[in-house]
Amino acid sequence: MTPEEWKGKLSAIKDSFSSLISEHKADYETLYQRFLGRKGELSLLLRDLKDIAAEERRNLGVLGNAAKQELTAAAEKIKSAIDAHNQRCSSAPAIDITLPGVNFPKGSLHPLTQTMDRISGAFLRLGFSLASGPLVEDDWHCFEALNFPECHPARDMQDTFYVNAKDDRGKDKLLRTQTSTVQIRVMEKQNPPLRVFHPGRVFRNEAVDASHAFAFHQVEGLYVDKNVTMADLKWTVDAFMKDLFGSSVRTRFNPSYFPFVEPGAEVDMSCIFCKGQSEHCPVCKGTGWLELLGSGMVHPNVLKACGHDPEVWSGFAFGCGIERFAMLLYGINDMRMFFENDFRILEQVR
Ligand code: PHE
Q1: Domains: count for the chain
Q2: Is 100 within the bounds of a domain?
Q3: Which of 46, 61, 91 is the last residue of a domain?
């Protein structure tokens, strides 16, 4: 072999080595075996040097060894890149694309919010519009204007929490005990005729048990116009209850006392569970009736306190606890479940 032929072979080997690399056609083992191993093309070519004249051999040997180092370095670079890749793959967790996806928990409205929405719907369909008032109230709106004079025994049933702040009349502000406060707020600002409903949170100094809480919710409706009578109250309450619980429910009025109405009545609804058919019904206790609302004709003193002439205007109001409705609607028997935030209860009502 002439030195020129030898150089030609060397550059052909280098070319095929680099084209394999640039086309990503070979891994380290293949490259090593084909070019650098004992029987590799480059190793054989270097062995051929022995047949070349001594004066040329030295130069070609330098070229050949440089080529060997170059190819070895390039092959090793590939090897370390592949090793690093394999390392990454084996330490990363395998993804099983056949597994079902992670369930994303859906939120829902709280049962009390849902109940309030249903009740609001019933009021809106009867033509009442939404009103609201503050939770921190003054003595006037919570009691005095509602015909609970100072020291009136009816105040005892509505003991509440007082705030370290005085109202306009120098009395301690308080957390409202009933949504009836909004009757006063509306009638002070608006002249009759008016037809409003007002849902919201109320507070009382109560020990917590299955049917009492220190914070709960009420809603009530107020209608003031000329010639409003008890018959209007009875029809409206009956239509309201039928909207919420179905057209077969009946309502019954029992005389009762609330300072801001005269006459006043408690309203019972026929038991939606046993329909009055079971002596042992755990909900109505066999009476066939569920006591649900307070109601009555707006007291003349209340109209006067808001600046309206009771000889001209008359009206009715009725109200109820939202927790009580929600307990009936969703079969929940302990009021505490509404604020314990147990997902099992919240998920049940969707
Ligand atoms: N505010 C009364 C209560 O909390 C309920 C009620 C509302 C009674 C409207 C009559 C009319 O007990």
Answers
A1: 2
A2: no
A3: 91
Do 85 and 122 fall into the same domain?
no
Distance between Cα 178 and ligand 1 center (Å): 7
Strand 289-298 versus strand 194-203 pairing type: unpaired
**Do 115 and 243 sit in the same domain of this protein?**
yes
In a domain, 171, yes or no: yes
**Among 137, 142, 175, 178, residue to substitute to test ligand 1 (most atoms within 8 Å of Cβ):** 178
22 and 147 belong to one structural domain: no
Ligand 1 binding residues, C-beta < 6 A: 178, 180, 220, 258, 261, 294-296, 317-319
Last residue of a domain, one of 91, 119, 154: 91
- Expressed as residue numbers, the domain containing 45 is 3-91
In a domain, 295, yes or no: yes
240 and 122 Cβ atoms separated by less than 8 Å: yes
Which one-letter amino acid corresponds to residue 13? I
Cα of 214 from ligand 1 centre, angstroms:
17
Ligand 1 centroid distance, CA of 82 (Å): 80
Provide the residue count of the chain: 350
Please choose, from the candidates 122, 128, 146, the residue with its C-alpha nearest in 3D space to the C-alpha of residue 292.
122
| In a shared domain, residues 72 and 130 | no
Give the residue, out of 123, 203, 220, 302, with the most ligand 1 atoms within 8 A of its beta carbon, to mutate for a pocket test.
Answer: 220
Residues 6+ apart with CB under 8 A from 108: 346, 347, 349, 350
Q: Tell me, yes or no, whether 138 and 29 share the same domain.
A: no
Full pLDDT tens readout for the chain, 350 residues: 889 999 999 999 999 999 988 887 778 888 899 999 999 999 999 999 988 888 888 899 999 999 999 999 999 988 898 888 888 877 777 778 888 888 888 888 999 999 999 999 999 999 999 999 999 999 999 999 999 999 999 999 999 999 999 999 999 999 999 999 999 999 999 999 999 999 999 999 999 999 899 999 999 999 999 999 999 999 999 999 999 999 999 999 999 999 999 999 999 999 999 998 999 998 899 999 999 999 999 999 999 999 999 999 999 999 999 999 999 988 888 999 999 988 888 888 87
Taking Cα atoms as reference points, which of 82, 181, 81 lies closest to residue 132?
181
For residue 284 the two structure tokens come to 């109505």
